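Ticket #4471: structure output looks truncated?

Reporter: J.K.
Steps to reproduce: submitted the chain below (213 residues) through the standard prediction queue, then opened the result file.
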Amino acid sequence: MSTVPLNDVSRGDPLRASEWNTLVGQVRTLRKLTGANGVKINQHAGGTTISLEFPVPRLHLCRLNQAITEHEVNADGFVLQRDYNAGVSQRQVNDNQSDPLEHIFDPVGTVHLDGTDGFTWWMPNAGQRVFFPFMNWHLGKVHTGETITAGSSGLVNLDTIDDVSGVRTATGITVTAWGYLLVSGQSLTAGTTVAIAQHPQSRLWIIIAAACP
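Returned output as attached by the reporter:
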């Protein structure tokens, strides 16, 4: 196809054959548009429409149906739907579990307990939904046989809390937590209740509070 540049013309200007042929060639090329896998091209009287053949993955507000432990994939959850009948002082979503979600994971290898709320977004090259919690801290107890001192680490058993009765229940899930905020000579023995949060850069769990001895 000719590469003669096409310039604007005015009424009465001559039109050379090379310019006309360039225009025709470009029109023919446009009419031969083809899409890569998953791309749909529809040519019609109004022009050309390019779209995806599959639905664009959505951001979902969800609740986990099972815990996501470190480096686990394929967790289950369900979509939280807007509750349009809720009053201003009531929770604005319902949890009827009518719209399940599968293949949920956390790419940084953190821990999320059953019942945790957050967002999911589909990650095509992983074939999984990435989970984004609203916040990530836990309540638990120093594991049996462990003693955590200033600057050292130890295992912590994570608890769930019933959102109605307030009763704490051990999950059986443990993580390694660090006592960076403890002062020299301070120690946390087995059974001590602690609050831990995950440091975003290092992804280490840090003890941020502990029950008074």
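Triage note (M.O.): checked the attachment and the full token line is present. Residues 17-31 form the longest helix (15 residues).
Status: closed, working as intended.
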